[in-house]
Write a structure and sequence with these properties.
- The protein is an alpha+beta fold and 265 residues long.
- Helix content is 14%, strand content 23%.
- The protein is globular and about 50 Å long.
- The relative contact order is 0.21.
Length: 265
């Protein structure tokens, strides 16, 4: 199957994981596959909704999680997530209104879709004739051909002082210096691509993958997400590394999670 605009990769063997957090390092062999060069944008998701009438789970639930720092001054008090109080439950927050009532997608058509659940992502893939990437495929593509490097461009976070991804700059969560140029999400094709032509496989928004995420005991905790987001900072979250992974439940959504599509070849 050939899907227009996708990057076709030959697959083969690669070393997946790391020797510390995502260990053990193991050799994985992949069949050829295709993957999109960037996350699905708001503009593209709007086409899907116009064609199908799809209603996202955030819209049906009536709320989603929004980073408190993105809410305007004077925003009404909202329930905070215990242990991560920078996340707020915001009613009427959804993909069209990323910060709730009064917000819009103006100027963000080319930004990654957010407030989308795993189930919503799967619905989009079914419509577009694609699928979500498997974790191994996502990591293989994210590495861009480099072997066991921390980031898609190498081991240095900011080589030569150059920002290569959209993550939190300053002290989290109270001060963002905007040194990388963004507060919140960046366009899906911001920053130079990796060696395979993929943009933003580190930072910007987390990306849903196909598989379940299991803890060391084998208990399913949710669905795997990859890549980190604009909120990642070395002080508490270094999951913007190529091998890093975490999870969320299939019906959950937030202002920093989207997805990109893949396909068989």
């Amino acid at each position: 199957m050939r899907v227009e605009g996708m990057v076709e990769l030959e697959g083969g063997s690669f070393l997946m994981g790391t020797s510390d957090r995502e260990g053990p390092v193991r050799e994985v062999v992949l069949e050829p596959f295709a993957i999109e060069p960037h996350a699905v944008s708001n503009e593209r998701f709007a086409e899907f909704v116009a064609a199908t009438g799809h209603v996202t789970e955030a819209e049906r639930f009536g709320w989603s999680f929004v980073f408190a720092g993105l809410l305007p001054d004077g925003f009404p008090e909202t329930r905070a997530l215990v242990g991560a109080e920078w996340w707020r439950q915001v009613f009427e927050a959804d993909w069209r209104r990323p910060e709730g009532a009064g917000s819009s997608l103006e100027g963000r058509g080319d930004h990654p879709l957010v407030h989308v659940s795993w189930n919503d992502a799967r619905a989009f893939c079914a419509w577009s004739g694609t699928r979500l990437p498997r974790e191994a495929e996502w990591e293989f593509a994210a590495r861009g051909g480099l072997v066991q490097k921390r980031f898609p461009w190498g081991d240095e976070l900011e080589p030569g002082g150059e920002h290569r991804m959209n993550v939190w700059q300053g002290s989290f969560p109270d001060r963002n210096t905007l040194a990388d140029g963004y507060f919140g999400s960046a366009p899906v094709d911001a920053f130079p691509p990796n060696g395979y032509g993929l943009h933003n496989t580190s930072g910007n928004v987390w990306e849903w993958c196909e598989e379940d995420f299991r803890d060391p005991r084998g208990v399913v905790l949710g669905k795997a997400i990859r890549g980190g987001s604009y909120l990642c900072h070395h002080s508490y979250c270094n999951r913007y590394r190529a091998a890093a992974r975490t999870s969320n439940t299939a019906d959950s959504s937030s202002g920093n999670t989207g997805f990109r599509c893949a396909a068989n070849l």
